[in-house]
Design goal:
alpha+beta, SHC Adaptor Protein, four-stranded antiparallel sheet, 2 helices, about 25% strand, globular, Peptidase propeptide and YPEB domain-containing protein
């Protein structure tokens, strides 16, 4: 193989590897295909917290997200017993759903 052909082939290979790495880095390490979580801030945070805590009957807010895949806002509430509930809110802070955030402890069990 000629030297110039080897250089071109090597450069093309390096470019392909770099492009693949760039796509992988842009996609992040989360396999779900979601973008980065954006927390709720300002007055919206206060309203979302009030709505979520009213829905759960208490607890403490341990996470928030704007633009959740299930609703406009998501508020994670940790209850006094340590369990977690994800409360889904629309743009007007009305509850559109809530579910217990349960880890599947039997994932590997038969």
């Amino acid at each position: 193989m000629k030297r110039s052909t080897k250089i071109i082939a090597g450069t093309a290979f390096a470019a392909a590897v770099a492009a693949g790495a760039g796509v992988a880095a842009a996609g992040g390490s989360d396999d779900s295909g979601e973008g980065p979580d954006v927390p709720i801030t300002g007055d919206a945070l206060e309203q979302a917290e009030r709505a979520a805590l009213a829905e759960t009957g208490g607890g403490r807010v341990t996470g928030t997200e704007v633009g959740d895949e299930e609703s406009y806002y998501e508020v994670e509430v940790t209850l006094d017993d340590g369990s977690q509930v994800d409360v889904q809110l629309d743009e007007d802070f009305a509850v559109v759903g809530s579910d217990a955030d349960v880890e599947d402890d039997d994932a590997g069990a038969d």
